[in-house]
From TrEMBL:
Residues 2-231 form the ABC transporter domain. This is Urea ABC transporter ATP-binding subunit UrtE. Gene3D superfamilies: P-loop containing nucleotide triphosphate hydrolases. Belongs to the ABC transporter superfamily. Keywords: Amino-acid transport, ATP-binding, Nucleotide-binding, Transport. The keyword ATP-binding applies. InterPro entries: AAA+_ATPase, ABC_transporter-like_ATP-bd, ABC_transptr_urea_ATP-bd_UrtE, BCAA_Transport_ATP-bd_LivF, P-loop_NTPase.
């Protein structure tokens, strides 16, 4: 589904990511993990085309997308929930969802029923401003906005950051539904182990810009957790 080969990334002269190979299995939830500052967001930004790739390649559904635009990635079915949610606080909930629709080719595109059925609170609050929503509701809006293009791959960057525990569980259930019932492939950046255990099939562990371990979740040993994750 998504295949990264030998990705290297830089900020100016600083080498941030080193020779990253990553392959996502279709229909699985893969967790990209590692402590603060190891390069998770940089990798996701590289996948999304927000950072230009200087070395390495990215394939999505057997097409080379390494140098394709952000818009092309959306047309091809990659949905993205950025770190910090990035809700437009002055726009209504519905307007925020419509921003996501701009990435669809069809002019007649409408917000899919799925979004409001997954997140009834967004329907109830569709005329309220994004800035009036709680953190958990904003996170639901950010996920809903990524889903309006009906993606086949959904990438979420730390969706539980700053969210109350009961809402974290709700977000985990939604990810499981998207993954198991609708067959979406999910790439999740996450550090919280209980949440990872709730949703992930596979993992990639980064440390100082390098992939130091990957496999199915059962292969995430206590030693790896102790040495490379903040628990
Ligand atoms: N725009 C930037 N310019 C220069 N350096 C950056 C920039 N963004 C991130 N960095 C640096 O690159 C490294 C990787 O950062 P990145 O945000 O990818 O890590 P992360 O694993 O996502 O961390 P976190 O969990 O805190 O979000 C860090 O050392 C960070 O300080």
């Amino acid at each position: 589904m998504l295949k990264l080969s030998n990705i290297n990334q830089f900020y100016g002269q600083t080498h941030i990511l080193w020779d990253i190979d990553l392959s996502l299995a279709k229909g699985k939830c893969t967790c990209l993990m590692g402590r603060n500052g190891v390069g998770k967001t940089t990798l996701v930004q590289s996948i999304m085309g927000n950072l230009k790739i200087k070395k390495g390649t990215i394939q999505f559904k057997d097409t080379d997308i390494t140098h394709k635009s952000i818009e092309t990635r959306a047309y091809m079915g990659i949905g993205y929930v950025p770190q910090g949610r990035q809700i437009f606080s002055q726009l209504t909930v519905e307007e925020n969802l419509r921003v996501g629709l701009a990435a669809k080719r069809s002019r007649a595109a409408k917000i899919p029923d799925l979004v409001y059925s997954l997140f009834p609170v967004l329907k109830e609050m569709r005329n309220r401003r994004g800035g009036d929503l709680s953190g958990g509701q904003q996170q639901q809006l950010a996920i809903g906005r990524a889903l309006v293009i009906e993606p086949s791959l959904l990438i979420l960057d730390e969706p539980t950051e700053g969210i109350q525990p009961n809402i974290v569980h709700e977000i985990g259930s939604i990810i499981n539904r998207l993954n198991h019932e609708l067959g979406l492939t999910v790439l999740l950046v996450e550090q919280k182990l209980p949440f990872i255990q709730m949703v992930a099939d596979d993992f990639y562990l980064l440390d100082r810009g390098r992939n130091i371990a990957n496999g199915c979740l059962a292969q995430l040993t206590p030693n790896l957790i102790k040495n490379y994750l903040t628990v």
